[in-house]
Design brief:
elongated, 7 strands, four-stranded mixed beta sheet, alpha/beta, 2,3-Dihydroxybiphenyl 1,2-Dioxygenase, domain 1, 6 helices, Signal recognition particle alu RNA binding heterodimer, srp9/1
Length: about 170
Amino acid sequence: MTKRLSNQKISANLWFDKNAEAAVDFYLGVFRNARKGRVTYYGKEGFEFHGMPEGAVLTIEFILDGQEFIALNGGPHFKFNEAISFVINCDTQEEVDYYWNKLTEGGDPKAQMCGWLKDKFGVSWQVVPTVLADMMDDPDAAKVQQVSAAVFQMKKLDIAELEKAFGK
């Protein structure tokens, strides 16, 4: 029996139609600190419950930068939406640009705003510079308002523009 990738108490479970393998491979290629873990497969019951043939991938465990996920091939019953998203905290503009460019490849351009994006599998992400939280927590309400206004005008967040709006 193969061990779990981590002892993380809570893991995000992502329900894909039939493309969990492609999604996991994509994410493993995007995140530099990533690895795949256990893979489970449907038995004879797969078709009855999810329309999946015996031997098709059921779940794949994987880790992206320390966060454990499980990808499930569950059929077309549920779709991703923006009510759940994953935040990628970035220290530099280079890092923001990297994740934004990688995750928007083939994604939905209409779902890009304020640092949010939807990838080609329908999963929502927020690519956020870490300095933004400090700016939004500043005691100067005028600075916070200027930064907020700047964020609402952007798709991909730009640290230099945020700093300009903040008054740096």
